[in-house]
Design a protein that fits this description.
Elements lengths: L3 H12 L17 E2 L4 H6 L4 E2 L3 E5 L6 H14 L4 E5 L6 H6 L7 E5 L13 H16 L4 E5 L5 H4 L4 H14 L2 E6 L8 E15 L3 E14 L9 E2 L2 E2 L3 E7 L1 H7 L1
Parallel strand pairs: 3-7, 3-8, 4-5, 4-6, 6-7
Antiparallel strand pairs: 1-2, 8-9, 9-12, 10-11
Length: 258
């Protein structure tokens, strides 16, 4: 009776024209990353956010997801790279982005607005604009990073985005070597995301008891594909996701110290 390895070789040789290496697992690869500029985050992510893939940054409002994305765009635009921000809810603050170090001359801001006559009948109006704009920009290429801001999108709407849409985004990002960063309260991209990060605020520091001076955040990796997960202790049979803390100074605080 032939061994299992002999049977595998026999099956693969008979299917090699249609399915090369049908029974051989695809080797785990290490994907290229781009630094976020936050040392603690880059260390946790083994270098930064993946290039040519989808990264999801989730969390409630004031959890640090926008601050992390602006720090990432700051690094890319300082290198002369062209980036884009698709604003599904028209909530992007250009002044805060500039104060965070983003070169606005290298940033395309796509503002999605509701149509007054269709806002009540079509709650997906802004979301549809955002998805179409993201698709066009990814297919066109030339962007080093693209942020799809769905932070104010209701989870029941975001979770209804077809899986085929995320798969198309993933393929286009890989082809154009674009880092697609999706912001939301919960993950939306499902299996198409190479990394899923969860943000949470841990501490708020105020100056003179009234002015916000800095915030401390916690970042936890819920999923990180292509790179080996570091060892973590097991609790009740479950591995605790790797986490790290980092702090960000308010833009006006940085201006005073400059």
């Amino acid at each position: 009776m032939p061994s299992a390895s002999a049977l595998r070789i026999q099956i693969e040789s008979s299917l090699e024209r249609r399915f090369p290496a049908a029974l051989t697992p695809v080797p785990r690869t290490i994907r290229e990353t781009a630094p976020t500029g936050i040392q603690e985050v880059d260390h946790l992510l083994d270098g930064g956010l993946p290039v040519g893939a989808i990264s999801e940054v989730t969390g409630p409002e004031s959890s640090g997801r926008t601050t992390l994305s602006l720090a990432f765009l700051s690094q890319r635009t300082r290198q002369g790279q062209v980036c884009a921000w698709v604003d599904a809810c028209d909530a992007f603050d250009a002044e805060s982005a500039a104060a965070s170090g983003v070169n606005l001359r290298q940033l395309l801001w796509v503002r999605c607005r509701s149509i007054a006559t269709a806002s009540k009948n079509k709650p997906w109006a802004r979301l549809d604009q955002a998805l179409r704009s993201t698709d066009l920009l990814l297919q066109a290429g030339g962007f080093a990073a693209l942020v799809l801001d769905l932070g104010n999108t209701a989870p029941e709407h975001g979770c209804q985005i077809p899986l085929a849409t995320w798969f198309r985004f993933r393929q286009a990002a890989d082809r154009t070597r674009c880092s697609l960063v999706v912001l939301g309260t919960v993950p939306f991209a499902q299996s198409s995301a190479a990394a899923v990060l969860e943000c949470a605020a841990t501490q708020v520091v105020t100056g003179c008891e009234t002015v916000l001076s800095s915030c401390c955040y916690e970042l936890r990796t819920e999923r990180q594909r292509f790179t080996p997960q570091p060892f973590a202790p097991r609790i009740m049979g479950l591995r605790k996701p790797p986490a790290s803390t980092w702090s960000a100074t308010s833009p006006w605080q940085r201006e005073e110290g400059a």
